[in-house]
Structure prediction request, 147 residues.
Amino acid sequence: MTTNRRLDEIDRALLALLTANAREPAASLARKLGIARSTLQDRLDRMERDGVISGYTVRMAAEPDAELITAYVMLSINPKLADRVVRALKAIPELRALHAVSGQYDLLARICAEKTWRIDEILDRIGHIQGVERTTSSIVLSTKVER
Prediction:
């Protein structure tokens, strides 16, 4: 975000509504927020200009990964080999997300595959990447909330 202006309560409510449905008409959003449509449009324009909103996307009703097994993998890596590790992880098609994190581990990867044996193969592959020092993984059993 490149703005010095802080988001107010209306901005945060607008972002929550857009997160739920980015295609909701501006007039409907304005009604829900109790503001004029022109005010809503000004806020949208400002948040887009300031980089608060970087784009709009499609969220499918049936997620392609919904039937897949998901594993979250925490990785401790050698900082000198971080670029190499990230490149190697990007080459794994089942990698859905990779985050740098604080704390005991350096990276958090989300892996999705059709079978547990495939998750096991991917975990072995990750463990053999030069620069990966340690991993801990958790398989998702169910999703309680997803937005």
